[in-house]
Specification:
By secondary structure, the chain is α+β, with helices and mostly antiparallel strands. It is 27% helix and 47% strand. The radius of gyration is 22 Å and the shape is globular.
């Protein structure tokens, strides 16, 4: 009886060890990033990129829209190995505006499809907020993942990445845009 119990315990331990090794082989270490841009802090995690370390370019602009409203844009562009692979834009309006994710999703998907791309979209939580992601494929099968969400009635986030889907998912799951001060 003791020998049988010992056999099953060893077997269970072996299976547990095997599962742990298999899970560990698939897990990628994520690198955490946090960048200040204007009154915002943009943080997220990415797997290590084979093309090299990530470098950031920042651009802050203010424009008056056709309707006279003022829009501040805070752009964060990411490069690795001299290639741009991702951007995140935080847009802040001077007055509140009602947003419709459904309308945005339909409009953007239609735009890409009419421009000759293949685009499919889905609603997805991003930054603990309802958002939209659009999978845009070009004729040469290159892909762009566009995403949109709104922090409040004055602040919207738009971004895009050309990373493979398995590297885009950690970005979407960990993206967090916070206000470091009142804009």
């Amino acid at each position: 009886m003791r020998a049988v119990l010992l056999y099953y315990m060893r077997r269970l331990l072996f299976i547990g060890l095997l599962i742990a090794l298999m899970c560990g082989a698939h897990a990628e270490d994520l690198i955490n990033y946090s960048e200040d841009i204007g009154p915002y802090v943009v943080s997220f995690s990415l797997p290590e990129l084979q093309s090299g370390p990530v470098e950031f370019e920042k651009d802050i602009s203010q424009t008056e829209m056709l309707n006279g409203r003022i829009k501040d844009e805070y752009k964060l562009i990411m490069y690795s190995g001299d290639e741009g692979f991702c951007y995140i834009i935080v847009s802040h309006l001077d007055k509140e505006q009602d947003y419709s994710l459904k309308k945005l999703r339909e409009t953007q998907e239609e735009y890409f499809n009419n421009a000759g791309f293949s685009a499919i979209s889905a609603e997805r939580g991003i930054d603990n907020t309802p958002g939209v992601i659009i999978d845009v494929t070009d004729v040469d099968a290159s892909r762009l993942y566009e995403f949109y969400y709104f922090k409040d009635k004055r602040t919207g986030i738009h971004g895009g990445t050309m990373l493979p889907w398995n590297q885009t998912v950690p970005l979407l799951k960990t993206l967090n845009v916070t206000s470091s001060s009142a804009p």
